[in-house]
Amino acid sequence: MQSPKDILKTHWGHDRFKGSQERVIDALLQQKDVLALLPTGGGKSICFQIPALAQKGICIVVSPLIALIQNQVDQLKQIGIKAVALTGGIPFDEVIDLLDNCCFGNFKFLYISPERLMQEMVRERIQQMNVNLIAIDEAHCISQWGHDFRPAYLQCAQLRELRPGVPIVALTATATDRVAKDIIEQLEMVRPLVVKDSFERKNIAFSIVWADDKPFRLKQCCDQADQSAIVYVRTRRLTEELSQYLNASGYSCTFFHGGIAKAEKKKRLQLWLKNQVKIMVATNAFGMGIDKPDVELVVHYQIPDCIENYFQEAGRAGRDGNSARAVLITNKTDEGQVKNQFLSILPDIGYLKDTYHKLNSYFQVAYGEGNDETFQINFNAFCETYKLNRALTFNSLRILDQQSVIALSESFEKKVMVRFVVGKQSIFDYLEKNPDMAPLIQVLLRTYGGLFDFDTKINTLLIAKKSAIPETAIGNLLKKLQKDGLIEYQAQDSDLSLTFLVPREDDLTINRFAKEIREWHQVKIANVNSMLAYINNKDICRTKQLMAYFGEKNTKACGICDVCIEKTSEDGFANPLLPAQIIKFLTYKSCDSRTLIGALNYDEHLVLKAIRELLEEGSIAINSKNEYEIK
User: What percent of the chain has pLDDT above 90?
Assistant: First the structure.
């Protein structure tokens, strides 16, 4: 058997391990369970790949994202190690062949999604494999107290039953003490070694930028980055809007979200990885498992729902160890929006019970019956029948699904997308010849902005109500508009398949997990409040705040975040020439603060502080155009 260090040198070219990698590897080779809490960029994959290579047999790796799985499998293949990725969309016969290869083909790694563990065929084949190690990547997903809880991850515990005695390693870069304890419990770990390296990223300058003009501040951030950048937003549409804005402003930029075709995603990713495009505007899943060490800037354009997500995404900057920045651009309007988006849509127990009762009434399920019965349901029609809030009802169904009261098909999330591909004059010309299409087209244009610029999700039931056209006819009319060359139209069956998994017992059904749901909601509320507290805390170093959240109490002030820089200036270390330079600049022309910040080679906080001092001492004033001028 090769030693771990020999394997590290042979396959990865490194002479030594970093952090606690060696401790984790040694424990796994001694057949101990391990929970490894390592920072982003801390080399988590090495921790299970080397002990798997040091022994006979195959390592099963559970991972949450296809991109993450494919990236690691490709990397292993490049260094001559046999690995299989069992992701979705693979034909049944091919799945069987891949599993046979794992049983008899001397493969070293089987990467699977947690959903695959629900398949009986997969479980049976795992029992036949010579498994030497089980690795649960992004292990926080198994905890309902974690920031990215995935119910399918609870299936990971089955691996302990299928292969008793095989050591398990759970790995994550973002876990509070409560989440860490839950991971150990859910995976039924036996006296595990818990290894935690500091999550501190000393090379990243964290900062909060308050700005009413967020697009301008985004451009400022991008101006200051010489290398790659990521801009995170919460919606697909905003990825496209900001990408258009930055490209129009002269930046090299593209966008990335889940609605883009697979081939186009790969193309855009490669352009960014090869530095042919500098800035990637993306939704938050982007970056998971992507090894790009030279990201100099990560911008959050909107407030994330929790510190865990924020820290994980910001941590994609500076993985090469060089200086990097993580900037969150926000304003007071954003604070209200984040509470509305993440907290107002959490259904309480009363709403959950009401939704469940209405589901049973909708399908006429009698008390004590319904177990294993499957129905087709149109979500829009269901909400309209009972005048239900769509967002609250959506989350109610998700909770019922998570708690195994019902099972929903994936088609629940499929959307109807529309985009006009002709100008307004062409639409007028079309309506002269096709006046019967006017009600639909007019309602579309009045209801949704951006139809000429972006693929826009539409609610066919809402359109039907506003246009007085039956919803069943809307699809055919949209197909006609597509055929006539006016729109691009993507539609999939919006009905979902719903299976009742337990007999109907009304309130008793919900009462079994009501306490758990209340606690889960409190965690969600606490997560948002912690994020807002971090943003608004201008007294404590950003890094110290983040580390304290993850249980690290003795971190020193970083000296490079916005809070530390502001404190430095307050302690008298600001350049004494700055006020004079501002006055000199204003002798030539009056201007606003953002022009001064852009023109002077100083941190924004220092410029604003100097402006305040000059105003207080009466050296400058604000004119009717809201510009600063010499008094």
Answer: 49
- Which residues does 250 contact at the CB level (< 8 Å), separation at least 6? none
Amino acid at 533: A
Q: How far apart are CA 362 and CA 574, in angstroms?
A: 68
Query: Distance between CA atoms of 610 and 396, rounded to whole angstroms?
Result: 52
Residue with tokens 């207080």: 616
| pTM > 0.85: yes or no | no
Relative to beta strand 228-232, strand 193-196 is unpaired
Euclidean distance between CA atoms 460 and 445, whole angstroms? 14
Q: Which residue type occupies 625? A: K
Q: Where are the alpha helices (DSSP H) in 403-448?
A: 424-433, 438-447
Contacts of 445 (CB under 8 A, 6+ apart): 451
Contact present, 121 and 95 (Cβ < 8 Å): yes
Residue 207 corresponds to which tokens in the numbers above?
């900062």
* H/E element, 341: helix 332-342
For 136, the enclosing helix (H) or strand (E) is: strand 131-136
**pLDDT tens by residue, 533-589:** 999 999 999 999 999 999 888 899 999 998 988 887 655 545 667 888 888 889 888
Q: Which residues contact 176 (CB under 8 A, 6 or more apart)?
A: 145, 308, 549, 550, 551
Query: Closest Cα to residue 211, out of 569, 581, 598?
Result: 598
Q: Is 584 exposed, middle or buried (0-12, 13-18, 19+ CB in 10 A)?
A: exposed
pLDDT tens-place string over residues 321-362: 899 999 999 988 898 888 888 888 889 999 999 999 999 999
Separation of alpha carbons 300 and 604, rounded Å: 18
Q: Which helix (H) or strand (E) holds 60?
A: strand 58-62
Rounded to 5 degrees, what angle do the CA atoms 22, 25, 30 make?
A: 125
Which pLDDT band holds residue 412 (cuts at 50, 70, 90)?
very low
